[in-house]
């Protein structure tokens, strides 16, 4: 067995030890390089500009610093690898800047700030872009859902409750339901974006600084919406991470539920949906197979995205209220991966839905079975014949039970046979043939349900029209936000003093 001295000999006598390097510093460096590189240099630029404007730096010094920062930012991050001479990417880049402008000037860049507020600012800059990408993908999926809804206002299908055939509806009504849930998911993402898009800069370690900095100016230069006023909150608060994680988790749970439906609808037995050729895979041994791998991967990725977001939440749970590593470099990649995977899910399902083929005849056949229009019999008896709904429900239930026992569908009953069952309840009424034909018709069932939010084509078309206008407003909000941030970033990166 290795003794303590032998172990220390391998590890080294000073920080960082070999194990710490391999377990922490090297993986953290690689994550920082892959995710935080650009954000770090944007913050350097904003801070130097602010220091110059505040008179903390001489303008000539700041101009040299800014050119050095911009020059160093041109390094290809893929060319960077962990070097034990530097604790992390921040110190490595500080050394690179020093090579450009000299150690004395490079050392002044850090006046009036800490790696604490700088780190939180980097995380927020990256996370807001991830959230915007997720919103963009969700908007694109929303568009595909509305397009399909527009084409299927009279594609009749079975609606389910408790996984059992319940009532006829339309595919358009179903797609709109998915769409509406997705819009609430998007609203949650926007809420998270607003919380993320706030500036902690100027909080320094947690008590601000004795230098006369302008927190408002760095906030403006980096495109943040506002300053997080309380400096302790700016460093200790982690709710922006929790809200981001929860918005992605809810999005993926909601999406996973209807993805699970799709995997049923594309089965050969159900036969309602046909996935386009680019998104199915043939078996290596069974040539007849059309495996819906695109949908399967989307379901799997949704679970993975949820798990990464949940991991971030768990890492924050029961941690101290302050600057801690739990909310920093080890946690952040979980959120970035969660957002990236969510984008993949939304993008993949958009492609599937946009190219989806629907077997309307097959869906209509299903909507004509399992007695799922029988509610309309109870409604007709109560509405047109002044029978209490409970008694009308009992009559309808008796017919449904007898249908199941005899293996008959409603359309296989003659109206005379139905009237004989009704007479058993001594209500003194009988149905006309035309009435019974309406009762067993999925089209009539849907048409008469024109109440707000119902599946009637006229009502669904109204909802589609309103939602198309609302989606355009949402997309415009995204475009204007993205354009503003891109222009802000471009101006910052090319600014001279």
TrEMBL record:
Annotated EC: 4.3.2.1
InterPro entries: Arg_succ_lyase_C, Argininosuccinate_lyase, Fumarase/histidase_N, Fumarate_lyase_fam, Fumarate_lyase_N, L-Aspartase-like
Full protein name: Argininosuccinate lyase
Recorded GO CC terms: cytosol
Domain spans labelled Fumarate lyase N-terminal: 84-303
Localization of this protein: Cytoplasm
GO MF entries: argininosuccinate lyase activity
């Amino acid at each position: 067995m290795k003794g303590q001295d032998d172990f220390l000999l391998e590890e080294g006598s000073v920080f960082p030890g070999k194990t710490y390097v391999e377990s922490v510093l090297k993986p953290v460096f690689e994550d920082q390089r892959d995710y935080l590189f650009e954000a770090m240099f944007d913050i350097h630029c904003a801070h130097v500009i602010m220091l110059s404007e505040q008179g903390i730096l001489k303008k000539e010094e700041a101009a040299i610093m800014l050119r050095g920062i911009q020059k160093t930012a041109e390094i290809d991050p893929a060319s960077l690898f962990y070097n034990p001479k530097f604790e992390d990417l921040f110190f490595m880049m500080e050394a690179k800047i020093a090579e450009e402008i000299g150690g004395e000037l490079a050392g002044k860049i850090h006046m009036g700030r800490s790696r604490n507020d700088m780190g939180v600012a980097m995380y927020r800059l990256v996370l807001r872009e991830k959230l915007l990408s997720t919103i963009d993908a969700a908007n694109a999926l929303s568009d595909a859902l509305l397009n399909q809804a527009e084409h299927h206002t009279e594609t009749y299908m079975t609606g389910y409750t408790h996984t059992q055939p319940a009532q006829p509806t339309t595919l358009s009504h179903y797609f709109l339901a998915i769409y509406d849930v997705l819009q609430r998911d998007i609203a949650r993402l926007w809420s998270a974006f607003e919380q993320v898009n706030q500036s902690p800069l100027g909080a320094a370690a947690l008590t601000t600084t004795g230098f006369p900095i302008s927190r408002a100016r760095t906030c403006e230069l980096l495109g943040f919406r506002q300053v997080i006023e309380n400096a302790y909150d700016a460093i200790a608060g982690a709710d922006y991470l929790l809200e981001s994680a929860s918005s992605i988790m809810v999005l993926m749970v909601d999406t996973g539920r209807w993805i699970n439906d799709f995997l049923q609808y594309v089965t050969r037995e159900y036969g309602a949906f046909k996935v386009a050729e680019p998104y199915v895979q043939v078996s290596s041994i069974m040539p007849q197979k059309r495996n819906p791998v695109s949908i399967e991967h989307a379901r799997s990725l949704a679970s993975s995205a949820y798990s990464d977001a949940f991991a971030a939440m768990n890492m924050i749970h029961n941690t101290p209220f302050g600057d801690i590593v739990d909310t920093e470099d080890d946690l952040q990649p979980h959120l970035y991966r969660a957002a990236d995977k969510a984008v993949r899910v939304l993008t993949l399902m958009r492609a599937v839905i946009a190219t989806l083929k629907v077997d309307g005849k097959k869906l209509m056949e299903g909507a004509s079975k399992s007695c799922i229009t029988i509610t309309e019999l109870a409604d007709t008896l109560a509405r047109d014949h002044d029978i209490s709904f409970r008694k009308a429900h009992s009559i309808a239930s008796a017919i449904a039970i007898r249908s199941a026992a005899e293996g008959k569908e409603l359309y296989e009953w003659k109206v005379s046979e139905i009237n004989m069952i009704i007479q058993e309840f001594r209500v003194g009424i009988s149905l006309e043939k035309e009435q019974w034909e309406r009762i067993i018709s999925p089209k009539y069932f849907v048409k008469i349900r024109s109440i707000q939010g119902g599946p009637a084509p006229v009502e669904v078309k109204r909802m589609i029209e309103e939602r198309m206008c609302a989606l355009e407003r949402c997309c415009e909000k995204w475009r204007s936000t993205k354009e503003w941030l891109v222009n802000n970033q471009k101006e910052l990166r090319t600014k001279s003093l």
